[in-house]
């Protein structure tokens, strides 16, 4: 496809015309305000999201890079880090920073682990990080940028990291081990106390990824739910990532990374004093940091408070129960595993779950698809209490529709079977065909009839061919192409 250049506007638009254009641009976006998205958005309901928005707006131009220019942001950051530490089993020694998101928190934790290992290990080859198969790709991304070797260990039948395999994976080059609370794909919490024992025996840095769970698990526990130990109450946990822009309901662009103590955080801090521009010092990866995101996090914690978070968590977990019951009552589909909290993986032994997801997309639901096993993923939030019944009805109808052996489904099955057969002998030409099917750059193609494509992805998950295809697709997505 031909690339096109975008001209710079010669004149600015007037405000109303400009805002109208922006509203128009939103037309095809996922309708998160109505609770139609089960991914990417953590919606506590309108009152709280508006309060967070107003707090963000109060600091929308401020820059947390310089705490002397904006002492308010420094205070808010210290408050938020301190409050997060007290929720997550920390004490007065626990410290951290606010970062742009889970990925930045994870990147910084892996960087600190690498620098710490230089002092505490005699690793002569590439340092290795032991990563459960269920852990977020942000760990692989961090390894990619930081020159670390990811060593993937499988999960067990309960989808938690297989501890025997984790033990086997430890070598003299290992520096860190990861546990999730919970893992994104199946919503289960790894056995952190056992991982801590492994880490202590082998002098490894243990990072707990509580990006999703950090601000819901502590409240679920207070409500009486059985939540296994996962935080600083477990001796041996060095760092925890917990996203403010997930279940803390803050604005996008905020996560905390907590360290057990200030010595560990020192590996993260950066300064360059030889610059003609003056002393440069920065606590995290970003230089300029969005003041609005910090203010929004502070507002969420202080505006919602423990009582509010308990209510929101209760609402979420009631909705999880309703959805679980409803799913269990629909013939042909099932939960892949009982979740520990609010992330559900829904699959099927007999039916094409991606075709069911397509039917739901047609009805305006936004849902992620996962692989091995093929399933769809629901991130449940308080807003879903309002739409759970409608969703279950649509899910039931979608399942029934897919159950009826339609011609499309037959054709899909045949195509998928062909691809499965092709997999072993995938020639470059065949691959080109597959590529044109998957990388047309039109996202609506993917959502409207994606079951074959996702079936292919499930088959090829983790292969270099699929990696290359996805990188091509990404390249296309961020290139201006002629329509
Ligand atoms: C368990 C877990 N860790 C890390 C991340 C990465 O967070 P972010 O997308 O904010 O960088 C996610 C995102 O969904 C996640 O679910």
Could you explain the architecture of this structure?
Among the domains are: 56-301, Aspartate Aminotransferase, domain 2 (3-Layer(aba) Sandwich); 407-477, no CATH class. The strands form three sheets. The protein has a seven-stranded mixed β-sheet, with helices on both faces. A four-stranded antiparallel β-sheet has the order 10-11-13-12. The chain has 17 helices and 13 strands. The model is unreliable at 439-447 (pLDDT under 50). The protein is α/β, with parallel strands linked by helices and 483 residues long. Strand 12 (368-370) and strand 13 form a beta hairpin. Pyridoxal-5'-phosphate (PLP) is lined by residues 101-103, 136, 138, 180, 184, 209, 211-212, 243, 255. Pyridoxal-5'-phosphate binds next to helix 4.
Structure summarized in a few sentences:
The chain is an alpha/beta fold. It has helices at about 15-25, 45-60, 70-85, 100-120, 140-145, 165-170, 190-200, 215-220, 260-265, 290-330, 355-360, 390-405, 405-425, 430-440, 445-450, 450-460, 465-475; strands at about 95-100, 130, 150-155, 175-180, 205-210, 235-245, 255-260, 270, 280, 335, 345, 370, 375-380.
How is the secondary structure organized here?
Blueprint: H1 15-25, H2 46-58, H3 71-87, E1 95-99, H4 102-120, E2 128-132, H5 138-146, E3 149-153, H6 163-169, E4 174-180, H7 192-201, E5 205-209, H8 217-222, E6 237-243, E7 255-259, H9 262-265, E8 270-272, E9 280-282, H10 291-328, E10 334-335, E11 343-347, H11 353-362, E12 368-370, E13 375-379, H12 388-403, H13 407-423, H14 428-438, H15 443-448, H16 451-460, H17 464-477
Parallel strand pairs: 2-3, 2-4, 4-5, 5-6
Antiparallel strand pairs: 1-7, 6-7, 8-9, 10-11, 11-13, 12-13
Helix pairs in contact: 2-10, 3-10, 4-5, 10-12, 11-12, 11-16, 13-16
Residues 101-103, 136, 138, 180, 184, 209, 211-212, 243, 255 line the site of pyridoxal-5'-phosphate.
